From TrEMBL:
Keywords: Methyltransferase, Transferase. InterPro entries: SAM-dependent_MTases_sf. This is SAM-dependent methyltransferase. It comes from Streptomyces monticola. Signal peptide: none annotated. GO terms for molecular function: methyltransferase activity. The keyword Metal-binding does not apply. It comes from the Bacteria.
Length: 289
């Protein structure tokens, strides 16, 4: 399958500001270091739902597109929606259409990338979706599920009745070694009145979002997703790329966050220089009504 692309409203590259350069570097770190940590989650969901050539997948918050790429490799037709992260969408485009021209709109049934809302992915010329995913994990930062229910509500009319909708979240803190490291973000962000503060995942986080979106529960599962890094430097870069430390950087500075994050990661440094943290993530399956 040769994927094609819908890319909406992505600007042509121009003169980069320092903030733009940093955002691009973080997006690249996410794509090259951190995103692969969630591959066991993607694979478990696709295996359970038998994703294949019959699947028409709508990926909400698709980021740099690794989950879409895995689904496409199983034969699925995929559409990714990303609301704001230009840099991650550009990387998704590189992954899915490495030879495509920048900034052009190419329409096709195989693979599409859309900047905007689920409504922007609507196309009356294409069949309805029969799988919707929201793989960005919720449940470790205050307010990290805000807006998700509304996004799912907007996506539901684009899918067939009874379509599975998959949500993902962090597992219980006692099963997630990285939870202790993420508390650095809370402590450093306190001057911003707790903005982006860490909190333990709650048992019903995913169920609550699905209920607010008007979806019908249909099962759940847990998947081991260890975070493993070749070096301490790659561990720091990978975790910073998640966006979970942005409030801490604003409250202090980049160097301070890196220093304290390195200290928090030190107990997980192995003799060979690698960093390893065991984690469990949870997924929840609901269905459109």
């Amino acid at each position: 399958m040769t994927p094609t692309l819908v890319q909406q409203h992505l600007p042509h590259p121009g003169t980069a500001t320092p903030r733009d350069t940093e955002a691009c570097a973080r997006a690249r770190d996410w794509a090259e270091i951190q995103e692969r940590m969630l591959v066991p989650l993607y694979e478990a969901v696709y295996e359970r739902l038998e994703v294949g050539a019959h699947t028409r997948l709508l990926g909400l918050g698709c980021g740099s597109g690794l989950a879409l790429l895995i689904a496409a490799s199983r034969g699925a037709a995929v559409t990714g929606v990303e609301p704001a992260a230009h840099e991650r969408l550009a990387l998704a485009r590189e992954r899915l259409t490495p030879d495509g021209p920048w900034g052009t709109d190419c329409r096709g049934d195989a693979t599409r990338l859309v900047k905007g809302t689920p409504g922007d992915a609507a196309d009356p010329a294409l069949p309805a979706y029969n799988l919707v995913t929201a793989f960005h994990p919720i449940g470790c930062m205050a307010g990290d599920s805000e807006g998700l229910a509304a996004t799912l509500e907007a996506a539901a009319p684009l899918a067939e009745r009874g379509t599975p909708v998959v949500l993902a979240g962090w597992g219980p803190p006692e099963r997630c070694t990285t939870s202790a490291v993420l508390r650095v973000a809370t402590r450093l962000a306190d001057p911003l009145r707790g903005g982006g503060s860490w909190r333990p995942a709650l048992r019903d986080d995913l169920e609550d979002v699905a209920q607010r979106a008007g979806l019908k529960p249909d099962g759940s599962g847990r998947v081991a997703c260890p975070f493993g890094y070749a070096t301490m430097r790659s561990a720091v870069r990978g975790l910073l790329s998640t966006g979970l430390f942005e409030a801490a950087v604003e409250a202090t500075d980049h160097a301070q966050v890196e220093k304290e994050l390195t200290e928090a990661l030190h107990p997980h440094l192995r003799r060979d220089g690698t960093v390893w943290m065991a984690n469990v993530f949870r997924y929840f399956i609901a269905r459109t009504t």
